[in-house]
Specification:
single chain; about 230 residues; alpha+beta; GTP Cyclohydrolase I, Chain A, domain 1; GTP Cyclohydrolase I, domain 2; 2 domains; 7 strands; globular; binds guanosine-5'-triphosphate; binds zinc ion; GTP_CycHdrlase_I; one-carbon metabolism; hydrolase; zinc
Amino acid sequence: MTSETDLLSADLDHLDDEGGSAAETGSGSGAAVAEFRPGNGRIRPFDHDRVAAAVRELLIGIGEDPDREGLRKTPDRVARAYAEAVEGLGRDPADVLTTVFDEGHDEMVLVRDIDFSSLCEHHLVVFSGKAHVAYIPNENGQITGLSKLARLVDLYARRPQVQERLTSQVADALVDVLQPRGVMVVVEAEHLCMSMRGVRKPGACTVTSAVRGQFLSPATRNEGMSLILSSHRR
Ligand SMILES: Nc1nc2c(ncn2[C@@H]2O[C@H](COP(=O)(O)OP(=O)(O)OP(=O)(O)O)[C@@H](O)[C@H]2O)c(=O)[nH]1
Ligand SMILES: [Zn+2]
């Protein structure tokens, strides 16, 4: 019997035969784009036509008529929506954490309540909420632009994800790129796969955290956590 894994690898081989190599447009438009390099979660370029074809197939599968007026443009729309939802795939965190200021600052920096939405990799529906990102600058007191922390959250949110991995990827990228003395990331989110279907528990909030370096010390961790929680008391 052919296993699911065999089928998947046959499919990937087939893709390679089709030319899943450099410089695919991924949009079917034929426009010139930068050379595609796999990495950071992306193993091939986004293929708009393939996603649209799959959505058309999905519509047929659920018993709809993909050619009726209201649905005619849906495969294209959904493909564009997915392109946006996974635009963090393949991006390098070092390209986001670009701005570094030599400020000589050696205390905690926290950006809390960073809105994000991501795609649950089990059901491909949205999970969304807020991320809180704190770090203690490196020995040189270097700080980064505040917006870069929010950009980093988006980079890892915009792909098929699980919340735990999103949380630790943000923390580890900060460690790798900025070499701070400590990092703490807390993510709170509602998963649509738990509210609109399945167990149907709207409002259930999942909280995950990742701590690195000096935040492993209970006192520093508590200080970070109380600064994050203070936003809920306003
Ligand atoms: N740990 C973790 N689990 C998640 C996340 N997003 C979704 N899940 C869970 O992934 C699990 C998938 O479980 P399965 O039993 O394979 O799928 P299912 O039959 O659709 O499960 P139900 O959601 O319980 O109906 C579910 O329990 C989801 O709640 C996440 O970010 N982290
Ligand atoms: Zn899910």
